[in-house]
Amino acid sequence: MERPLLGRGSALCCSYSYLKAWLPLLSWAPRYRLKWLQMDLLAGLTVGLTTVPQALAYAEVAGLPVQYGLYSAFMGGFVYTLLGTSKDVTLGPTAIMSLLCFSVVGGQPHRAVLLSLLCGLIQAGMALLRLGFLLDFISYPVIKGFTCAAAVTIGFGQVKNILGLDGIPHDFVLEVYYTFYKIPEARIGDVVLGLLSLSVLVMLVFMKKGLGSDDAPSCSTTIARRLVWTAATMRNVLVVVAASCVAFSWNAFGHPVFTVTGETSKGLPPFKPPPTSDTTANGTVVTFGEIVEVRSRERRPDSGTLVGGLAAIPFMGLLESIAIAKAFASQNDYRIDTNQELLAIGVTNIMGSFVSAYPVTGSFGRTAVNSQTGVCTPAGGIVTSVIVLLSLAFLMPAFYYIPKAALAAVIICAVAPMVDYQVVAKMWRIRKLDLVPFVVTFLMSFWEVQYGIVGGVAVSGVLLLYHTARPQIKVSDPGMLVMELGSGLSFPATEYLSHLIHTQALQASPPRSMVLDCHHVSVIDYTVVSELRDLLRQFKLREVQLVFSRLQPQVLEVLLAADLQDFRHTDSVEAAIQMETESLLDE
C-alpha cells in the first residue's frame, strides 16, 4: 500500500522542482531573513530615487511624453522578483532601448505600447523554445560599435535641450547641421542651467570615484564619507529637484526663462490591453496588419517600420540585460539561467504593454547602484516599483517644472561612459579584422540604428563563414607531404581542401602521397565524405596514397560507415610516413 504514497510523494517533489525552475522566487523566499529585508529596502529606495529622474529623461529620448518613462519603470520590479535569477538586475527604460523605440515608432505612444507587447511575445517565445543561443551570433565588436554610436546619437540629441532650441530634425546628420545653425537662437537660461547641471553631475561622479570603492560605506566610515557617497549615488534626483526648484522660482516671479516639461497626465496608468489598431488625425483607422507592415513614415518621417524594429529590438534588449546579469553574477559569485532571464524580460514587456509601457531591458547604471547598495534578493525591485508608483500617484503635478536642460544633462552623463574609445586600440592589437564589423555597425547606426545592428551581424556572419570555408591548413614535408587541418571541416571548406590537395600532391610531377592530419576535426558531413571518396579515387588512379592520421573516434566511425575504398588510417603521422616508406621499399 505504500508504493502509491511513495509515487505520489516523488511526483509532488518533481512538480515542486519543476515549479522552482520556472519561479526562482521559490528558491530564495523560504530562506528570507530580516537582515535581507533591511538591505533590500535600502537598495530599492536608492534605485527608486535614481529611476524616477532617469525614466523621465529616457522618455524624452523615446520621443514620448515623460509619464511614459514612469509607466515603463515599475512593472519590471514586480515581474523580475517572480521570474528573475539575478539579485542585482533592475529592469526598466534605458537609453539604448529608448533610442531604438524612437527610431521605429517616431514618438507615437500607441505604437510604442504595441511594440512592447510584440517584443515581449518574441522574447518569451524564445525563452520557451530555448533559443537563447541565437544571441551568440551578435559578436562583441557589433555590440560595442552599436553602443558607441547610440551614445553619440543620444548624447548629441540632447544638446538641443541644453541650448533650448526648437524645430531640430531627428535625422542625425540634419540634427548636427541644424543644431549648429541655430546656436544664435539658444536660450540663455537653458544654457546656464544645463551646463551647471552637467558640471554638478560630473563633479559628483568624480567625488564618488575619489572614495576608492563603489560599494556602500560601512558603519565604521566617517559621516562625511557617507554623505558624499549618498549625494553622488542620488546625483540625478538631486540635480533634477534642484533645477525644478529654480525653474519654479523663476516662473513664480513671472520670468519663465527655462524650457520645462509642461503638462503631464496625472495618476496611475489604466490597466488595459494594448491597442492593436490606431486612428490618424483625419479619422482613418489603421489596422494591426497595416501598423506592422506599412511604414510609419507616412505619419512621421523619422520613424521606421515595426517589422524592422522587431528584427532588432527584442534581441538588443535580451543581449543588454543578459550581459549585465552575467557581469554582476560573476562579480558577486552566483549563476544565472539565461533562458529564465529571457522569460523574465519577455513577460515584463508583455505585462508592461497593459500599463502603457514601451520596451524595457536591464539597466547597467541602476543595476550597479543596486549591487553597490548591498541588495540581497530580487525583492529590492518591489521597493523600486513602489517608489515609481507613488511618484505617478502624487508627484506628477510637480514634474511640470522639471527643466528639459536638467533632464538632458542626466541623459548625457548616463550615456557618456558608453563611448568606449579604448576598445578600438584593443581590437587593433588582438585581431584587426574585428574592426570591420565594429566600423560597419558604428557608421550604419547613424543612418538608422537597427540597420547598424543588422549590418554588423551580417558582416560578422560573412567573416565567420569565410573562416569556415577557408580553414587554416599547414603543409609540411618530413619525407612525405603532411597536411594538418587547423580547425574543423564542413561542406563550405571541401572545395578549398580539394584544391590544395590537387595543387600540392596530385598535380605534382610525379604525383606524391599525402597524410591528412585530422586531429582537430571533430565533425564531418556528407559533402566532405563525398569529396574524400573522389580524392581517394584520384590518388589510386595516380598510384599514390592518401592516408588519414589521428582521426577522432566519432569521425573514424563516420568514415568507416561510408565504406570508402582504399581508406587507410593511422594513429600518428609518423606511422603514416613509415607505412609509405615500407610501401616504396616493397616496390
Automatic annotation (TrEMBL):
Q: Which GO terms describe its cellular component?
A: apical plasma membrane; basolateral plasma membrane; lysosomal membrane
Ordered alphabetically, the record's keywords are: Anion exchange, Cell membrane, Ion transport, Lysosome, Membrane, Transmembrane, Transmembrane helix, Transport
User: Could you tell me where this protein is found in the cell?
Assistant: Apical cell membrane; Basolateral cell membrane; Lysosome membrane
Membrane topology recorded in Swiss-Prot or TrEMBL: Multi-pass membrane protein
The reply to whether Protein biosynthesis figures as a keyword in the UniProt entry is: no
Please give the catalytic activity noted in the UniProt record.
hydrogencarbonate(in) + chloride(out) = hydrogencarbonate(out) + chloride(in); sulfate(in) + H(+)(in) = sulfate(out) + H(+)(out); oxalate(in) + chloride(out) = oxalate(out) + chloride(in)
SUPFAM superfamilies for the chain: SpoIIaa-like (SSF52091)
Q: Which residues cross the membrane?
A: 41-59, 113-133, 188-206, 227-250, 306-329, 341-359, 379-399, 406-424, 444-466
One of the Pfam families matching this protein, by short name: STAS
Return the CDD domains for the record: STAS_SulP_like_sulfate_transporter
Q: Where's the STAS domain?
A: 478-587
Question: Where on the tree of life does the source sit, at the highest rank?
Answer: Eukaryota
What does the sequence similarity comment in the record state about its family? Belongs to the SLC26A/SulP transporter (TC 2.A.53) family.
Q: What is the name attached to this protein's record?
A: Sodium-independent sulfate anion transporter
